[in-house]
Amino acid sequence: MRLRHTRRWACALALALSSATVLTGCGAQPEPPSTPPAKTADANPPAEETEPAPEPIVLPACDAMNATAQQEYEEFGVEMFEEPAGETDLAAFTEFSGPVAQEAMAAAEQQRGCRWPIHSQGTVIEYVAELPHDAQAPLIAALRSDTTVTEAALDAAASFSYESPAPNGYMSATEITHLFIGDVWIAVFDTAGDRAYAPAALEAVMSANPSLADAAADAGAGSDADPDEPQGAAQAAGACASSDGPAMLAASAPNVPGGPWDVTGQFSDVSGYDPCAALSWIVLRPEPCCTRFSITPVLFFHQGELVPSATVAQYAIDTTAPPARASESSVALTFMWPGSDFAGPANTATSTFTWDAATSTVVRSGDLPPS
After folding, report:
1. pLDDT, tens digit, 9 for 90 and up, residues 326-340
2. Where does the UniProt annotation place the signal sequence (predicted)?
3. Among 314, 268, 265, which Cα is nearest to 290's?
4. The model's pTM
5. Cα separation of 250 and 265, whole Å?
6. Contact 77/132 with Cβ under 8 angstroms?
7. Residues of the chain with CATH 3.40.1000
8. What's the rounded mean pLDDT across residues 16-45?
9. Is the CB of residue 115 less than 8 Å from the CB of residue 92?
């Protein structure tokens, strides 16, 4: 009897111990997962890349701002004018500019104006300003909305050009060109309407600010602008001649019969030449120049290249109505010839010359003087 109780007690004790082991987890435990070794800090962490600060805009000095105007001044103006070339105020800019352009100039971070007295009929005046893109936008929009303004590309810059008529019929119209590249705005006023000064103006700014070329290339490569919107240089990439108006005058004039013609630009007019336009022009004048009804041949150019078959070589251009651009691909010329009184009013006839892309020729419509 006692043995039976002892056995029962032993069994109960064993069962209790077994239960305690399960409840308390005193059995064999799995080894804890190993902890990966902590990473040590790099003794030389790579430096964070930061955007380089933009290079400051440099405005060229007057003697370096426009090589074409400076050369003409040194050749002709020094002996003819007491007032030397040099810096000028905004008086001329205000005279030839509307309120939108004046507001843009007031917003410029810096600006410089220079003038060059060239000859008795005119002066070249140029302004270079640092103007951020957001301040350029209203002016560019106003220029694009004006139907008398021609937009083109001049190398990497967007170019807008137009004429401001003279207050009388005897003086030349003022040729005005606005150029935009990066944060730089260039305005050129040629009060004689005599030569193309914009290429030299752009070249001087690009030479003083090499980073502008890189910025223009990056903007063109990464642009997601509306493909139907005029894009200046990007639109005309690969479609512009490398020569400017004076160079094309010097190369082309000697081949035109009836000379000698002025090849320096003192009398001949290269203001209509555009290295990117579908159709542009140069008017030749004799050397020495000239009588009222002197023959004034007109040379036509397609994207800056001479179209020899289109030259109009037998008429006089109306001195009171210079050639006028009708569109990017057409030009209106008004010819004149003597009336019954040689000193009285002249007879006139107007023709429009248009570049025909289908035939790669210049076609004419309208009237001509009698043979």
Report:
1. 888 899 999 998 888
2. 1-24
3. 268
4. 0.52
5. 9
6. no
7. 62-217
8. 49
9. yes
